[in-house]
Amino acid sequence: ITTEDIAAAAVQLLLNDALQGKELTLTGPAAIDHHEAAKIITERAGKTVTYIPVSESDLIGAMTGGGAPESVANYLAALFRN
């Protein structure tokens, strides 16, 4: 999905009253998981990319350890949770 796709969807949401209050899932032409995304990036970049799952607590710890406020780390972790 590109930024242009997101912009086009946002325009439709703003202009189409039937879409007000609706929750939309924006995807590209195929739904892929993180492992498949890593495979595609590997193929295109010519460098090996491996997806390694990270627990929510490890994610928060890494962000706060890097200087992010705990409130920001918790907020971003919640985005990934949902």
UniProtKB/TrEMBL annotation:
InterPro entries named among the record's database cross-references: Ergot_Alk_Oxidoreductase (IPR051604), NAD(P)-bd_dom_sf (IPR036291)
Signal peptide start and end residues: none
Protein's name according to its UniProt entry: Uncharacterized protein
Species this chain originates from: Adineta ricciae (Rotifer)
